[in-house]
Amino acid sequence: MHYETVIGLEVHAQLLTRSKIFCGCSTQFGAEPNTHTCPVCLGMPGVLPVLNRRVVEFAMKMALATRCEIAPVCQFARKNYFYPDLPKGYQISQYERPLATGGRVRIETKNGTRTIGITRIHMEEDAGKLIHDENQPVSYVDFNRTGVPLIEIVSEPDLRTPEEAAAYLRTLRDILRYLEICDGNMEEGSFRCDANISLRPAGSTGFGVRAELKNMNSFRNVQRALEFEERRQRALLERGEAIVQETRLWDASRGVTVGMRGKEEAHDYRYFPDPDLVPVAIDEAWIEAVRRTLPELPEAKRERFARDYGLPPYDAQVLTSSRNLADYFEAAVKTFPQPKAVSNWIMSELLKELNRDQRDIRDCPVPPEHLAELLKLIASGVISGKMAKSVFEDMYATRKSAAAIVEEKGLKQVTDETALEAVILDVLEENPAEVEAYRGGKDKLMGFFVGQVMKKTRGKANPQRVNELLRKLL
């Protein structure tokens, strides 16, 4: 029997507010354990949470960017469960009355464009973090993360392949980073997801028994975990065995998912409205004020780059993968208005260096104006494309301009016809046998002559002019 895969993702994004969702503690990552805590986020008796307005506005930005309908009134609820890193014994989240519902995003895959529905976006607080001792059976609790604001983005079960799931995640992360409300760092846990996956007979409209996958800290691991689980469930079904509804952990070192616990249902959490927090009323004026702060989003920017700059879809995709990279490209094009040439250099030379150093474009030692200046030197024939790569490496290492490096190293191409003719005549005089052979029909010797001229000029001769003059003199 042929089976169809059904995947839905629950994505958690930490919001880049300076303080937590219900208290004034810092949200800074990496501080000493239990130093960013207070009686409110530790759930001490008698304390009252106070909602951070910035959290609501950041969540509204994501709702608007994903075409969700923002509710006029939303409400916080208590989600009850008992983990060591949850000091109150419940998490403040949203359940029956979330912030936003009914959105959608478009994703690009090798099979084309697909639209993925978003069921809901709601606000909640993060839990703490358990640190397990490697040498003894002891775990420590760090409550710094407790109360850090999250939005949870729940997709419709519209994803059909692990590849689509990874593309959907990248699309969400791009939007969050463009909005500057989440840094999208999966390794630090500020952007993470749980995946629900089930299989059903092809053509069926019902849903199979699903497993929820956790502990995936990269796009690659999300895709690998879903691929493994897809194979595992298919094998069980083909053997006529039942699939158990459960939560499973991804073990990246072994490349397998392992059972963790039975999957909880909503009633297991005993949700009820939080009595310490009033409902949040959001009027149209507030929504419009937030809408006016939205930047040009990745999808719109990709379409504009392809339309206005004539870039291929792949170039547009790469250059708009981050807002800062897109800004860098546009700044360079403003100075050197040849978009494809700028794109080629950014995607090859610049991103190669940045990726090697694991450096963000914001920390790039070559400003866009300097890259544009380098491309002008190539276009005007001052240096060759081959020389330019060496010059660029020096620019990246020293932060100097292209013109300064070319001047310091005496790299200007020899383009003067009289000077080039003198060098070429010397080469021809020194190699009479090769000249005779060339004139006898051995055209491949042209490369030999060009090489000799380049050697005599220490690579400074303009290759195009050398070829033209050689043909004329031979």
Describe the protein's architecture and organization.
This protein has 474 residues and is of the alpha+beta class. The chain has helices at 53-65, 162-179, 219-238, 284-291, 298-309, 313-319, 323-335, 339-357, 368-379, 385-398, 402-409, 417-430, 432-439, 445-456, 463-473; strands at 3-14, 69-70, 73-74, 77-80, 90-93, 100-109, 112-125, 129-132, 139-142, 149-155, 191-201, 211-214, 246-251, 256-262, 272-273, 280-281. It has three domains: 3-289, no CATH class; 298-409, no CATH class; 417-473, Arc Repressor Mutant, subunit A (Orthogonal Bundle), CATH 1.10.10. It contains 15 helices and 16 strands. The strands form four sheets. It has a nine-stranded mixed sheet with strand order 2-6-7-10-1-11-12-13-14. A three-stranded antiparallel sheet has the order 5-4-15, with no helix packed on it. The protein has a two-stranded antiparallel sheet with strand order 3-16. It is elongated and about 95 Å long.
Helical stretch count?
A: 15
Fraction of residues in H or I helices: 25-40%
Distance between the termini: 73 Å
* Strand order in the largest sheet: 2-6-7-10-1-11-12-13-14
Strand content: 15-25%
Number of domains: 3
Report on the biggest sheet: 9 strands, mixed
Shape: elongated
Task: Please state the CA-atom Rg, rounded to the nearest Å.
Answer: 30 Å
**Poorly predicted runs:** none
Q: Give the beta-strand count.
A: 16
Give a brief description.
By secondary structure, the chain is of the alpha+beta class. The chain contains 15 helices and 16 strands.
In terms of topology, how is this protein built?
Blueprint: E1 3-14, H1 53-65, E2 69-70, E3 73-74, E4 77-80, E5 90-93, E6 100-109, E7 112-125, E8 129-132, E9 139-142, E10 149-155, H2 162-179, E11 191-201, E12 211-214, H3 219-238, E13 246-251, E14 256-262, E15 272-273, E16 280-281, H4 284-291, H5 298-309, H6 313-319, H7 323-335, H8 339-357, H9 368-379, H10 385-398, H11 402-409, H12 417-430, H13 432-439, H14 445-456, H15 463-473
Parallel strand pairs: 12-13
Antiparallel strand pairs: 1-10, 1-11, 2-6, 3-16, 4-5, 4-15, 6-7, 7-10, 8-9, 11-12, 13-14
